[in-house]
Amino acid sequence: MENIYLPDLAVIDRIVDETHDIKTFTLRFASRELRKNFRFKSGQFVEASIFGAGEAPFGFASNPNHPEHFDITVRAAGVVTRAMHALKPGDYMGIRGPLGNHFPLEEVKGQDILIIAGGIGLPPLKSLIDPMLDCRGDFGQFIILYGARTPADRVYKPLLQEWSERGDITLLQTVDTPDAAWSGPVGVVTTLFEKIKLAVDRTVAFTCGPPVMIRFVIQELLAMGFAEERIISTLERYMKCGVGKCGHCAIGHKYICVDGPVFSWRQIKRLPER
Q1: 3-state class (DSSP) for residue 79
Q2: Rounded distance, CA 63 to CA 81, Å?
Q3: Which of 9, 88, 128, 193 could lock 42 by a disulfide, CB 3.0 to 4.6 Å apart?
Q4: What's the pLDDT score for residue 271?
């Protein structure tokens, strides 16, 4: 995009109901030229706007190898997101981006990969998992741990089933509160650590989810012996402008929208309010 300060029109091609309050929107830019030239990286985000409602940030939730269409997964939690949930295919959003930094992808090839996601923290990590699975042979052991409040609160249920049936990755899921049909583990996502075997010296861990989950995940990873630079996380702040001008997402001297949202634990631990 030539001007990240101004939104471009994107049309909604598809809407998937993930849970009772979460939807995934598949979008493409209305401009054919912009569609052709648009690129993004895993972990980056956009500012999406609805006329009359406002603007809010959302991480990419799709494969950057196929940027002609892109997904954002949205929980209805405020004025903007509720307005989004009222839209239908063929309607438009304003999109600014891509914004922010990105997950290391090329840098971790040859390593074992551990993904730890909680609830709606899986969508940003999906933008990393997808391209990694495109070149699965470039990585060693590949483990995904996913936790949600209930079985119904899990996003991407068909994809989770697909991952569980693959022979070249390990997917473990847990929920806080099971229903009658749930036969899997019950508990917070860190309880899944005891079910896996890792070589911490050759594993890179990526995590995204509620801040309280991330805090305990990082504590567990450090206790397991992970080096600080091998723990990669996102930080959550209200990234109002997305370009480091408004100051809403400042933590000390860092702006989450520009310097993040992706950080290693080595970087995070130096920040105030961590």
Answers
A1: helix
A2: 23
A3: 128
A4: 86
